[in-house]
Amino acid sequence: MDYQEEMKRLREELNENAYRYYVLDEPSMSDYDYDMKNRRLQQLEREHPEEITPNSPSQRVGDKLKAGFATYRHEVPLESLQDVFSAAEVEDFCRRMEDALGADVEYSLEPKVDDRYIIVNSILISLIFSYKQLKLTVSNYCL
User: What percentage of the chain reaches a pLDDT higher than 90?
Assistant: First the structure.
C-alpha cells in the first residue's frame, strides 16, 4: 500500500472511531490503538504535508457532542500529556510546563489504565466558584 492509501485508510479509521467514541460512547478500538494510528498519520503528514486534508483527525480535537450537552470555554486551558508512552516523553512534558509556567509550578500526573480489558477514562473537571459558592461544574466525560 502506498502512503496516500495508508493516509486515507488511517483518516477513515480514526474518524469512525472518534465518532463512535465521542458521540455514541462505543469506541471501536482501544485508546492505545487510536493513539498509535494517529501518531502514524501525523508522521505521514509531516513527510507529505501536501496530503493533509481538512477532515484529518490531526486538524481537530474530539468530535460532535453527544446530544444534550452544551459547550463551555475554560478560562484556563486544560493541558494534556498528549499521548505519552515513555518516561522521556513525561520529562519533555514537565520541561514544557516549566518553560510555560515557571519552575515553581505544581501539578499532578496520574497513570491512565487503558487496554482491551480495562478502560479508565481520563476525566478533566473544572469547578467554577464565585464568592465561595460553586457556580458551575464542567467535565469532558459523559455517561
Answer: 24
Q: With a cut of 60, say whether residue 115 has pLDDT above it.
A: no
**CATH 3.40.50.1820 corresponds to the domain 1-70:** no
Determine contact, residues 45/58, Cβ cutoff 8 Å.
yes
Q: What is the pLDDT of residues 43-53, one digit of tens each?
A: 999 999 999 99
Q: At a CB cut-off of 8 Å and minimum separation 6, what does 80 contact? A: none
Positions marked catalytic: 112
Spans of all domains in the chain:
1-70
Q: Which of 13-22, 31-40, 76-85 has the lowest mean pLDDT?
A: 76-85
Residue 131 to residues 13, 42, 66, 128, 134: CA-CA distances in angstroms? 47, 45, 32, 10, 8
Work out the angle between the directed axes of helices 31-47 and 3-22 (0-180°, nearest 10).
140
